[in-house]
Amino acid sequence: MPTTAQFTPTEARIFALLEDGYPHTRKEIFERCIEDDLANPNGIVKFHICSMRRKLKGSGEDITCSIAYNRTSYRRVMLVGKARDEDLDEEGCRRTSE
Known about the structure:
Elements: H1 9-18, E1 24-25, H2 26-33, H3 41-56, E2 61-68, E3 71-78, E4 93-95
Parallel strand pairs: 2-4
Antiparallel strand pairs: 1-3, 2-3
């Protein structure tokens, strides 16, 4: 499992926020973890999540993304068995029809 030392300071804040296992919206992650007020909330959160997913690969943990009602949420999960990376996009998103 990666240590927070492997993450940038912003990624470490996001990782700590996601530790509770509950879904957190992009807006919430941006407001609580990103210190750059001028950054694009969607782009910067996606950038950090993608970076974190690469660092978590093979650790038995991942960050999942779900999109429902035009809201994107992220959640830290423990993987059981073999993850099916081919079913997800580069951000770890699986679109739902909700």
